[in-house]
């Protein structure tokens, strides 16, 4: 964060400074008092079950020098009526002051946002100081918190932008209009919230509509709903994908025995080969999206592919780990929807080994289509796994779809017990569900 005094922050957000207004905030803003850094700002919300203002002193011990909240605290505090609005105002002000020399990239899509954001951050870091969303902090709080990590030396700001309602992404681009907008796909994630794929497409398109003047849209040529977003901008468009007319095209895709992809990325001017250090053929498409965005940011293809080859993904996303019994675990437990689960199952099927075991939990927010979507994933899993373990009552339709290859496990503890008793050397185990199912607990419990 650029250095700002408490008095300056109060003026920016229309709040009142309580305490020493000369105190200077020079480190990022945080919501968790335990994560405060020396010189940082603690943002306190009064919630239903806990009041952040009660943790101001803890934040101070961790290094925070000031608080943004709705009431005074023992630390110097900017008091406002609406903390979320004030946080967003502060973030918008800071990035506006840094905008000369700063390229802002927004990334959205029904799946693959976080992985593509990770890849793009690795690529852009090779060209200049880069700040990117940590994990999946992609909402009305996560985006401004990421923006506030930008400093005077920052050249690239990569913002993952998620949504659960029409208008959510438009609100985020209202804080900062991206120079580059990357739209990966339009799937069925959060279908229960949106009501239709058409509404999801409209929402993802808000990123393109929110581009800064002259900004570039980076669109998936393989997805008709995304390709149609070309009509939403008068600015430049760069496409990626496997179709012949993609500007950055994936060719010669191959997987090694551990399911790690290699491919050639080709443009009209040049091509480069890349081997990615993580699991899943779908990552090649994400890599082409990152390369296309990098090209739009002025980074050459050879520099982009060098960054891709050394990139790493956020935790619990197709994360391989060897188990004590000799089996291989694929921990993809951070989140799930039907499309991302199919991609994970394809990756499971591609890995050389003994039995392939898919441990699958509930996929949330699918609305009226939930049972049918779970059953369809079960059918898909049965064609790619030797055993399909459906964990929890809500995942029962997965077992129904998988038929004779399915087992039903009551809960996470039952899943851990079953796996501990039956895993053998050379088995490959995929663990995947929506975050709310907490299948990360199953992955963590396997020795």
> How are the strands ordered across the major sheet?
9-10-8-11-12-13-14-15-16
* Coarse structural class: alpha/beta
The biggest beta sheet is recorded as: 9 strands, mixed
Shape: globular
Instruction: Tell me the distance between the termini.
Output: 41 Å
Radius of gyration: 23 Å
How much helicity do the residues have?
Answer: 25-40%
- Give the mean pLDDT: 96
Uncertain residue ranges: none
The total beta strand count reads 22
Oligomeric state, counting identical vs distinct chains: single chain
Question: What is the count of helical runs?
Answer: 16
Note the beta-strand portion. 15-25%
List the helices and strands and how they pair.
Elements: E1 4-5, H1 6-13, E2 16-18, E3 24-25, E4 29-30, E5 41-43, H2 56-62, E6 66-69, E7 77-79, H3 83-98, E8 103-108, H4 113-125, E9 130-132, H5 142-147, E10 156-160, H6 168-175, E11 180-183, H7 191-194, H8 197-209, E12 216-220, H9 224-227, E13 237-241, E14 248-255, E15 261-266, E16 271-275, H10 282-296, H11 301-309, E17 319-322, E18 328-331, H12 338-350, E19 356-360, H13 370-382, E20 387-391, H14 396-402, E21 406-409, H15 412-422, E22 428-432, H16 440-445
Parallel strand pairs: 4-5, 5-6, 6-7, 8-10, 8-11, 9-10, 11-12, 12-13, 13-14, 18-22, 19-20, 19-22, 20-21
Antiparallel strand pairs: 1-3, 2-7, 14-15, 15-16, 17-18
């Amino acid at each position: 964060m650029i250095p700002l005094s408490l008095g300056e922050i109060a003026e920016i957000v229309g709040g009142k400074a309580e305490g020493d207004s000369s105190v200077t905030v020079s480190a990022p803003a945080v919501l968790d008092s335990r994560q405060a850094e020396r010189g940082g700002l603690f943002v306190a919300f009064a919630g239903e079950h806990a009041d952040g203002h009660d943790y101001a002193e803890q934040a101070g011990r961790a290094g925070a020098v000031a608080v943004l909240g709705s009431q005074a605290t023992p630390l110097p505090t900017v008091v406002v009526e609406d903390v979320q609005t004030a946080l967003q105002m502060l973030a918008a002000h800071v990035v506006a002051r840094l905008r000369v020399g700063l390229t802002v990239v927004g990334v959205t899509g029904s799946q693959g946002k976080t992985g593509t954001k990770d890849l793009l951050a690795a690529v852009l870091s090779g060209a200049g100081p880069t700040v990117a969303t940590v994990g999946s902090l992609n909402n009305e709080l996560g985006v401004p918190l990421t923006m506030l990590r930008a400093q005077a030396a920052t050249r690239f700001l990569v913002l993952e932008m998620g949504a659960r309602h029409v208008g959510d992404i438009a609100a985020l681009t209202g804080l900062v209009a991206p120079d580059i907008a990357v739209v990966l796909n339009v799937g069925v994630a959060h279908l229960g919230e949106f009501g239709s794929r058409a509404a999801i497409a409209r929402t993802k398109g808000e990123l393109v509509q929110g581009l800064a003047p002259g900004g570039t849209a980076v669109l998936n040529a393989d997805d008709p709903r995304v390709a149609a977003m070309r009509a939403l901008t008068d600015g430049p468009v760069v496409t990626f994908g496997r179709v012949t007319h993609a500007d950055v095209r994936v060719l010669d895709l191959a997987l090694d025995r551990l399911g790690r992809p290699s491919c050639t990325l080709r443009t009209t001017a040049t091509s480069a080969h890349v081997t990615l250090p993580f699991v899943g053929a779908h990552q090649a498409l994400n890599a082409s999206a990152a390369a296309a965005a990098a090209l739009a940011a002025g980074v050459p293809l050879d520099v982009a592919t060098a960054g891709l080859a050394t990139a790493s993904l956020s935790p619990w996303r197709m994360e391989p780990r060897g188990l004590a019994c000799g089996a291989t675990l694929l921990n993809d437990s951070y989140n799930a929807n039907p499309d991302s689960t199919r991609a994970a199952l394809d990756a499971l099927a591609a890995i050389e080994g003994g039995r392939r075991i898919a441990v699958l939990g509930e996929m949330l927010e699918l609305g009226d289509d939930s049972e049918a979507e779970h059953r369809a994933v079960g059918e898909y899993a049965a064609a790619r796994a030797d055993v399909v373990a459906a964990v929890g009552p809500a995942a029962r339709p997965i077992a129904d779809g998988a038929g004779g290859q399915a087992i039903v496990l009551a809960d996470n503890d039952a899943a851990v017990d079953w796996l501990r008793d039956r895993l053998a050397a050379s088995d490959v185990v995929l663990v995947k569900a929506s975050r709310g199912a907490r299948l990360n607990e199953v992955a963590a419990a396997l020795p």
